[in-house]
Design brief:
Blueprint lengths: L18 E7 L8 E8 L19 E3 L7 H4 L6 E6 L2 E7 L2 E7 L7 E11 L5 E9 L12
Parallel strand pairs: 2-8, 3-8
Antiparallel strand pairs: 1-2, 1-4, 4-7, 5-6, 7-8
């Protein structure tokens, strides 16, 4: 396996296409451990054609309400789950034609942990690229004011 953190660069403002550390289970079924693995945010399904330039913005989130209906996600549910820890995230509130960013985080220093799904894809150079999508759901009552 390639060195897992060669491409990671810490940032306070990540977006799809960035390399991010995630926690996942060992790939070897005989081992019962977890590893921290640097993956690119924005799922590229393994069946994507090698000569196609991937668009990480197409599949950066997976709605939990429809995750079992979409083949790209459903097939990953049994074994390709992972966790993404962050200090916080930005949510944008629309006000007419303007958008205002709000930084969402816990009051203490604990990280937020997102559920995610991952896959591996071989690009045109036969390099294996690991990518993930964050599982999202409807806003909690404390954040609904952002989406009103």
């Amino acid at each position: 396996m390639p060195r897992l953190f060669d491409r990671y660069r810490p940032s306070y403002n990540l977006s799809p296409g960035f390399n991010v550390p995630v926690v996942r289970r060992e790939e070897n079924p005989n081992e019962d451990g977890v590893v921290v693995h640097c993956m690119k945010w924005g799922l590229i399904p393994s069946f994507t054609k090698q000569n196609k330039k991937p668009d990480h913005y197409k599949m950066f989130n997976a709605r939990s309400e429809s995750i079992k209906e979409k083949a790209s996600f459903r097939r990953l549910l049994p074994k390709n789950r992972c966790l993404v820890a962050v200090e916080g995230f930005y949510e944008w509130k629309k006000d007419g034609s303007k958008k205002q960013p709000f930084y969402i985080h816990l009051k203490d220093v604990r990280p937020l942990v997102f559920a995610a799904l991952y896959d591996s894809w071989k690009n045109g150079e036969e390099e294996v690229i690991y990518t993930f999508t964050i599982v999202t759901t409807s806003s909690s009552s404390s954040l609904r004011w952002l989406h009103g």
